[in-house]
Amino acid sequence: MLVLVPTPVGNLEDLTFRALRILQEADVVACEDTRTSGKLFAHYGIETPRLSFHIHNEHGRVTQLVERMQAGETVALISDAGTPGISDPGFLLVRAAAEAGVRVEALPGATAFVPALVASGLPTDRFVFEGFLPHKKGRHTRLTALQEETRTIVLYESPHRLVKLLGQLAEYLGADRPAAVGRELTKLHEEVRRGTVTELAAHYGAQAKVRGEIVVVVGGA
Fold first, then answer.
1. What is the pTM of this model?
2. Fewer CB near the terminus (10 Å): N or C of the chain?
């Protein structure tokens, strides 16, 4: 069996009781980064064996893990933070497991974009999750396509590219488009800042360095 286990995006108290039990009972835990997961395992006293499963080795790991599951083992899949498969490795393993007839379970739990969306003050009844935009090739095409998007838009971005993204959103979607930036969600210095994309670009552009994981929520057209 394959179990997708969400892990905290910041606050370690956000791990569910069920997720903890699965991580303790699984035969092996496939981790995006065994060093990052080591902190979570140490905090909860989890001693289950771990192996790395990330974007650079997932193609090679898939066959190995599917064979282990077909032999009766339970594999738990986690990412560094949040829900596996959401802008993180996971899709290839889920597809291969399903095609091989392996049972797949996905636990509900932590993910960064949901709290950012509901705290943004923007409409939540209809939204589109875009994840990370391409850095270069395809970025113009994606931004152009979003010009006519009427649903609330949710994006992930790295802190050092945040100001550039906000500037491009102002250019493509309009300087007065409402938005919100969620930063360091669930952590001690959690911040949700609201304003137009132009105001947000000016605010973060004036900072010496932007830190933390970033979710950008933008109002629809």
1. 0.89
2. C
